[in-house]
Amino acid sequence: SRSINLAVVPGDGIGQEVVAQGLKVLAAVLPQDVKLETKEYDLGAQRWHRTGETLPDAELDSLKNHDAILLGAIGDPSVPSGVLERGLLLKLRFAFDHYVNLRPSKLFPNTATPLAGRPDIDFVVVREGTEGPYTGNGGSLRTGTPAEVATEVSLNTAYGVERVVRDAYERADSRPRKKLTLVHKNNVLVYAGHMWKNIFDRVGQEYPEVTTDYLHVDAATIFFVTQPERFDVIVTDNLFGDILTDLAAAVTGGIGLAASGNINPTGEFPSMFEPVHGSAPDIAGQGKADPTATILSVALLLRHLGHEHEAVRIEEAVAADLAERAPGTTRTTDEIGDALAVRVAS
Ligand code: IPM
Ligand code: MN
């Protein structure tokens, strides 16, 4: 479309800094005739301290009207663990039915990784985003006593599994290698694990061109490090996907480069794009954060909105920037954003 009405949620810590660079590159890459409108939302730790609110209904309603959401990072040590995660980030993912959490991993040139010099790594994790142990389905009895009992139930529905598995098959089918790996733990988690595997096999019959594989999650972590080139598209549940994508980021150039999209494929709700990394309060406000993950998330955002050409421009700019950066030097957040803005504009 010829206009983008973007919601911006900078959030906490380095979120502000990296989002500013993401917007800079977005403005630089868009052709003149695409009108960009942005609205910033004051959500996160400061808002919570001020008003006790995490995501009021008014904001949720207003966010619904945007084409997409760009989010920086959520979380601060001054807020009890879980308050912002559940009350803001997960609330957005659930409210906007972001059932595909898309997390690509590419080995960019010249990056500090234990896998440098290895064959090309280019896979994408399709992490389920609305179910699993993330639904808050649990409880604690005799809390704080030696007799405490806590449960944290993983919720899996056939509906929820089938739609994310189908999305993963579609993605695999459209990639050159056409390979899809299901990651679960069905030797122990037999109820959810078998349901995932049955649905995976059944839906697979509709995609005869896609080669399939199954791995237990523990084995998958080994292959992420020893044979990452074996992966093309991976589909997995919410928690396994959370863990695997941090590992994927670590082995393919660091968390500073890992982008993600929380996608609502039906288009009923806006999709939300964010770096995989957190708010990094230890380095916030110092210009030390690498904005590249956010800038690559902007590329995913553009692709989702149909601006494929601009998405590719950003990805190529990042690849060129990393390939040509002077070894041993460090750049500020701003400098990296400026360098990428110049590259995408030229
Ligand atoms: C992520 C984060 C979140 C998650 C947290 C902050 C709730 O780790 O986006 O990967 O677990 O999904
Ligand atoms: Mn995570």
Automatic annotation (TrEMBL):
Record carries keyword Transport: no
Q: Which GO terms describe its molecular function?
A: 3-isopropylmalate dehydrogenase activity; magnesium ion binding; NAD binding
Give the main location: cytoplasm
Domain called Isopropylmalate dehydrogenase-like: residue spans: 5-340
Q: In which pathway does it act?
A: Amino-acid biosynthesis; L-leucine biosynthesis; L-leucine from 3-methyl-2-oxobutanoate: step 3/4
Which EC number(s) are documented for this chain? Answer: 1.1.1.85
BP GO terms, sorted:
L-leucine biosynthetic process
Could you tell me which Gene3D superfamilies the record lists for this protein?
Answer: Isopropylmalate Dehydrogenase
UniProt binding sites for NAD(+)? 278-290
Q: Where does Mg(2+) bind?
A: 218, 242, 246
Site Important for catalysis — annotated at: 134, 185
Query: Sorted alphabetically, which Pfam families does this protein's record hold?
Result: Iso_dh
The record's subcellular location field reads: Cytoplasm
**Top EC group:** oxidoreductase
Report if keyword Cell membrane is assigned. no
Which catalytic reaction applies to this protein? (2R,3S)-3-isopropylmalate + NAD(+) = 4-methyl-2-oxopentanoate + CO2 + NADH
Stated role: Catalyzes the oxidation of 3-carboxy-2-hydroxy-4-methylpentanoate (3-isopropylmalate) to 3-carboxy-4-methyl-2-oxopentanoate. The product decarboxylates to 4-methyl-2 oxopentanoate.
Which family, according to UniProt? Answer: Belongs to the isocitrate and isopropylmalate dehydrogenases family. LeuB type 2 subfamily.
Assembly and interaction partners: Homodimer.
Which protein are we looking at? 3-isopropylmalate dehydrogenase
Species annotation:
Streptomyces pristinaespiralis (strain ATCC 25486 / DSM 40338 / CBS 914.69 / JCM 4507 / KCC S-0507 / NBRC 13074 / NRRL 2958 / 5647)
This protein's gene is called: leuB
